[in-house]
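Postdoc handover notes: sequence design on the structure in folder B. Input tokens:
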């Protein structure tokens, strides 16, 4: 169905996001282009955070699958996260925009 067909809009597309925090897992339906942290927190997923701007790094997550469905690293991530963290697939949830199905886990030092 084309984007201009009645009843369909690419913005209506929802993606499955799974967030692992310690022993718990949360599953969300997230619209295309949504910010991971803001959408998760607004749906009671307790990803730790302080600033929402990429400065504190409290919202660090590791991408388990679906990295190809995310925006590129932001300048904040490249500046704030050490190279070895980036190599492990770590990102800042506040800097992630979702464009497909993904699975993430809260980085070990922040897991409840």
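Designed sequence:
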């Amino acid at each position: 169905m084309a984007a201009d067909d009645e009843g369909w809009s690419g913005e209506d597309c929802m993606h499955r996001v799974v967030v692992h925090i310690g022993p718990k897992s949360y599953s969300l339906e997230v619209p295309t282009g949504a910010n991971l942290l803001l959408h998760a927190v607004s749906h009671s997923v307790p990803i730790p955070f302080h600033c929402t701007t990429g400065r504190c790094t409290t919202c660090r997550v590791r991408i388990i699958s679906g990295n190809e469905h995310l925006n590129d690293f932001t300048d904040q991530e490249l500046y704030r996260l050490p190279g070895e963290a980036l190599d492990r697939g770590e990102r800042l949830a506040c800097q992630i925009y979702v464009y497909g199905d993904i699975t993430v886990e809260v980085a070990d030092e922040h897991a409840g």
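Context for whoever picks this up: The longest strand covers residues 14-21. Don't rerun without checking with the PI first.
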